[in-house]
# Entry
Amino acid sequence: MPAKRHKPKAVREPVMVYLDAPDRDLLQQMVDRTGLPKTELFRRGLRRLADETLTERKPGWSLEYLIANAADDEFPPDLAERHDYYLAAGYEEHLRRKRKKKRARAG
# Structure
């Protein structure tokens, strides 16, 4: 059986953002708390702001967008059934990285 080929992801446009110290600290707090990359936090923030600002769009449009694009992501097939397992594994990975950073700073 041939390997499943994934459709190539759309080309993304790089955007440069300049942050002052308080905003940079806030962003880092969000990264630490959520474990999400900075780029994903900006995307989610943009969508949330659009939900609040662009009132001509129906409520929940960004969720529909995420669902439509989730087919292109490489999620495990049992994600819905075993979501607690995957969340716990992600949290454990986050803790491992945090401990590794702490040891690197101490060493």
About this structure: The chain has two domains: 19-73, 75-107.
